[in-house]
Amino acid sequence: MGWTYDYEKLVFSEGTDPHVFFEDYNHDTGDKEFSSFYNNHSISGKSGDDGQQELQEVVDMLFNTEESGIYLCRRLYQFFVYPVLTPEIESQIIAPLAKYLR
Question: What is the pTM of this model?
Fold first, then answer.
């Protein structure tokens, strides 16, 4: 894992960020190679203060896929608007929102 958060600050208020921190002892600091789904992306292993950057690189890699945007937009639509997705909703709402998110 390597990353954890401050359990005392689980309730977030406006203008505050969650306190996430990196723990060297609980992390593989070697390089990470990802599959072709992620364009064989590689993330250089980091330690110390640079370990936090590695988490940001993973998040960026995940959100750089078309599928993540589509998935998130579908779930948000289904939760806030209506649970059934039609082909029209997919093409006119989900796809443009996913493109914007990406």
Answer: 0.70
